[in-house]
Amino acid sequence: MQPFHATGLHRKIDNLMDRLFGAGVASHATIIEQINYLMFLRALTQHDEEAKLLNPDHDAIFKDELMKYSWDNLLMLNAEILFDTLEEAYRKLPELTTDKTVALLYRNAHIKIYDKPTLRVLVHEIEKLVTELDTAARHGSKDIFGDMYEYLLSKLAQAGTNGQFRTPRHVIKFMVDVVDPEKGETILDPACGTGGFLVEALNHLRTKYTSERFKKDGTFLMDELSGEERDFIFNHAFTGFDSDEDMVKFGVMNLYLHNLSHASIKRQNTLVDTTGDRGKWDVILANPPFSGNVDKASVSEDLRMGTGATEVLFLNYMTKHLSTAGRCGVIVPEGVLFKDQAAYGKIRQSLLDAGLWCVVSLPTGIFNPYAKTAKTSILFFDKTIDPKTKQVLFVKVKSDGYDLGSLRNPIDANDLPDALNIIQCFKNSESMGSKLTVETRIIDRNTLYNDPVHSLKIIGDSRIESTRGNSWPMVELKDILIPQIRTVEVLDAKEYKQITVKLFSKGVILRQSIRGQDIKTKRQFIAFAGDFIISKIDARHGAFGIVTSELDGAIVTSDFPVFESNMDRIFPKFLDYIVQSAEFTQLCEDSSIGTSNRKRLKVDYFLANKIPLPTIEMQKEIVATLDSYRVIADSGKIILKTYQPEIRFETSWPKVKLNELFVKLEAGVSVNSMNRPMSDGEHGILKTSAVSYGAFNPRENKVILDSELHRAKINPKTDSIIISRMNTPELVGASVYIDSDYNELYLPDRLWQADKKGNDLSMRYVQYVISSPKYRRMISDLSNGTSGSMKNISKPKLLNIEIPLPSLDVQHQIVDELESENDLIKGSQKLVSVYEKKIADYISEVWNA
Questions:
Q1: Contact between residue 29 and residue 112 where contact means Cβ atoms under 8 Å apart
Q2: How large is the greatest C-alpha to C-alpha distance in the chain, in angstroms?
């Protein structure tokens, strides 16, 4: 079988993606989504045509009103009509089709390629590409469509969308081969993403139940099964959950292209939405998210373990939802095996009870290029195993057939085949042979079972990397930071830059320029770019930072100790990223002494703290990855900072005061609250920060005390505008259009809500007008307060502002144009959010790998 890469077709996909980037489509996820929608439309049309040849009475998808949206018809349209027709098709398909899969996939689907000639080119390039795929399939590449789709998904994974990353296909196959699904069994992936485990489980069943005479031809008909058994596999065996709607769509498409069109793939948060779920599965295969936490209060009641750690909660779900003869293979961070927290001890107890029989340690870097520091293991457990009699096998995989660099190039070294052979021999109580090429260890289960909270730390001895479980040593700061005292003469100086360290933040800032005679009474020292500085005073949460090139040669006082980095041991930019972490901030807080109102950082305590220290080469590789994330995040921030909706006002349009458009403009009230976000069943009051220009973040809220609830009065409601009456000079007058009711949220006294008069007005249009550059400046000029402090605008001044008001049709037209721009801005917002999280998660991985 010819692999997908060998066809050269992957380059055409890359070219398509590059072209869409050039046309202004901002993210990998959007590009892949748009390609997927079109390729699936083509696949559905082809499916209709093939089915009609076999059965003239086939209930086609493209019939009656939907017939005009078939792929062949789309190919004949010009660019302008094609855009409108596709947008209409995506709206009509969920409404009119009887196919549940099609309805799911095109629900909330929209065209996001606004350059219409590019859209038409894409449609025709997809036709060429799929035609070549058909040709490749006829010449022996039986799974070429599935391979092509997985290539697209790999591009999505490399973008790190939604914090997810793709499990390498060869690792999935290894896990499926160990678990060995059988006919008649139900199979679940509770965090299925794009469906890789389910597809591989199907491939395993196809191979297992196809006779050799068909296998030789590369045809996997499962001829050794009865019709009922095959029907069960394709219609009832496979289930997948994922909390992200886009991932569900991608997964459904992937399974469809692998002939699993009737698998049960649901949008469901496995950790939150399963209270009372009594479903049991015979096989569970998964690589669930393990880099984050969920709110403990949000966790399904039957899964709670006093922790928000996703790896623990997913394992709890799996042990509870396996059938009595169930088997599981799951990838976990190695912290599951040795962390001391109570929840980790409890889950280790549950794993032993569920028949944990094998642990496979994977090499760091196996999830490159998007999770370089993740140190993971595969756990296999089987409920048919008596937990008190069997032994537990530990296998250490050092190489999986690919190098551990960013590109993951193939190499000869590969422990997986030998590891699989060893595991199968162990499972079947056969001899593992005398010449083991893979490091193994067998531990008596009773040893583990007698002390499950701590006993799995024995694995630490077999991992060799470190007793703490890290891939690199933890090194004291005093070994990498060299104290510096550089006295400078200031008596005759005219002007100096002076540094202070900003409290509650991570970064050195320039306080002001100070003349020499003003500072000659104290001993002064000089700092150079790249120096590390900490503040000994008032350092409640760690005041520290690295001197920027702007501050090279700046003066510091003795309250701010200066250090040079030991360049032989640490790369300065690596240190820069390390100090941006919550872990480092906690070190500074733990190293401070004094009362809660005023603490001092004790330098010798601080220097005794340890940080993870990979090799210089690895540090540079980590920095290169973080820098690439930072470039993307910063580029998105530039777009968000500079974008302003522009409306070309015509002089012929009448002008109307806001007072004539709003039936009322009412502020909320100040109430006592707890400074934490509200949970389900509680009521919250918005923070001022919930509203910025055009952006509404309802999660920016605080919980209202029950005793204060009677005072809260204004809920954000549909078709209204919220305006910030008091804010910073940049955000005073900031407004947002509200398109949903928020019955559990209330407005504070710094926010107004405007309701409209009559129905011949678009409140979206009004919000866009008062957010435009001209009116932002006008509102700021009318506000009270200084440029350096909070400003506020009075209600009479705001309501007296006149805005141009064209006909309602023109208002809607302007809104539609600006909404298209807004989709791009939302893409930038998501891009920033995703990559800021990737940076934080990656730095956290460095600490906790």
A1: no
A2: 98
Pairing of strands 745-746, 684-686: parallel
Confidence of residue 147 (pLDDT cuts 50, 70, 90): low
Pick the closest to residue 178 from 334, 436, 360 (CA basis).
360
Give me the pLDDT at residue 537, please.
65
Share of the chain above pLDDT 70, in %: 81
Please answer whether residues 234 and 318 qualify as being in contact, where contact means their C-beta atoms are separated by less than 8 angstroms.
no
- pLDDT recorded at residue 531: 84
- The SS3 call for residue 728 is coil
Across 216-355, the runs of DSSP E, i.e. the strands, are 238-242, 264-267, 281-286, 322-333
Q: pLDDT, tens digit, for every residue of 527-572? A: 888 888 877 765 444 567 777 777 777 777 777 788 888 888 888 8
- 813: three-class secondary structure by DSSP: helix
Q: What are phi and psi of 425, to 5 degrees?
A: -65, -45
Q: Give the integer Cα–Cα distance in Å for 424 and 395.
A: 12
d(CA 500, CA 506): 12
The answer to whether residues 647 and 768 touch, using CB atoms and an 8 Å cutoff, is yes
Tokens representing residue 656 in the block? 């109307």
Query: Between these two residues, 349 and 158, which has the higher pLDDT value?
Result: 349
Q: CB–CB of 118/23 below 8 Å?
A: yes
Q: Which residues contact 755 (CB under 8 A, 6 or more apart)?
A: 662, 663, 664, 717, 720
The token pair that represents 191 in the structure block: 């965090």
pLDDT tens-digit readout, 776-819: 889 989 998 865 568 999 999 999 999 999 999 999 999 988 88
pLDDT tens profile 745-776: 999 999 999 999 987 899 999 999 998 888 98
Q: What is the DSSP letter of 691?
A: E
User: 737: closest CA among 750, 751, 723?
Assistant: 723
Per the CB < 8 A criterion, the answer to whether 377 and 334 are in contact is yes
Say if CB 757 and CB 662 are below 8 A apart: yes
What's residue 266's pLDDT?
Answer: 86
Task: Provide the b/e sequence for 674-703 (b: ≥16 CB within 10 Å).
Answer: eeeebeeebbbbbbbebbbbbebebeebbb
- Cα three-residue angle 119-122-127, rounded to 5 degrees: 135
Is the separation of the CB atoms in 176 and 329 below 8 Å? yes
